[in-house]
């Protein structure tokens, strides 16, 4: 399984339960992350935030049982300005390197509407379609998204029950340990804590490219 994401912590905050659950079922996981997350408004007082977040990603990947991580140097917050062909080439190279037969990404709309999340998913889709590989997207129940938006004034994008293709129970123990590795981003993040409570032990997914 190749995980394609935009920022260090996406693999843990968003995809961590899926990565650990699939890994415990026998999947070997590689992560491709496009940016160092240096433009975050959280952890801005820690010095070189891009370097800090790179180290946090490496530590979190170990907690999640990820086999290999490739962290690229595209500008945080500017991924949508980059050539889709260039970004998808990186995904294509990682498909070869990891021998992946499944890609795991954020849902279309990026869960939060973040343009970087959307672009990372677009790049994964472009590469996967060329290779004939399935793409599974982590999604969010509409009820969870609505509650978060009402409580925090956030912009989460939820899916109705008829849009969900897969639902699975998860153990969030490893995900929570991986989240704790991202100290710069997790220490003052009430939205994340509330989301995990609302999601409970359930994750939902959509097939962006169904398996053959």
Question: Can you describe this structure?
Answer:
With 212 residues, this protein is of the alpha/beta class. The chain has one domain: LmbE-like (Rossmann fold), CATH 3.40.50. 45% of the residues lie in helices and 19% in strands. Strands 3-2-1-4-5-7-6 form a seven-stranded mixed sheet, sandwiched between helices. Helix 5 (115-131) links the parallel strand 4 and strand 5. The longest helix is centred in the middle third of the chain and has 17 residues, at 115-131. It is globular, with a radius of gyration of 16 Å. The relative contact order is 0.20.
Q: Regions with pLDDT < 50 over 5+ consecutive residues?
A: none
> Secondary-structure element order, as H and E?
EHHEHEHEHEHEHHHE
Binned strand content: 15-25%
What is the total domain count?
Answer: 1
Category by helix and strand content = alpha/beta
- The CATH architecture term is 3-Layer(aba) Sandwich
